[in-house]
Amino acid sequence: MVNYKLIGKRIKEVRRQQQISQMELAEISGLSVSYISHIETAQKKASLTSIINISNALGITVDELLYGNQLYNPTDYQTYRPIDG
Prior knowledge:
Elements: H1 4-17, H2 22-29, H3 33-40, H4 48-58, H5 62-66
Helix pairs in contact: 2-3, 2-4
């Protein structure tokens, strides 16, 4: 499950660290100021395209933007299943 509240918080955190206003981020990312605001406050769910545009505008990777958003469970990625017998 994607935590949009956490994504918005992370966008806001990085934006503030870089001393970029919502207006500047909107201009650089090609999104509207109100959409940036709604993403940061989790009033709207950011599309994948928007997340990519925002991460590019902030000069960070999507992975850095989404850091901490997924719960890591190694068994989810295991493909080997032992055969009983």
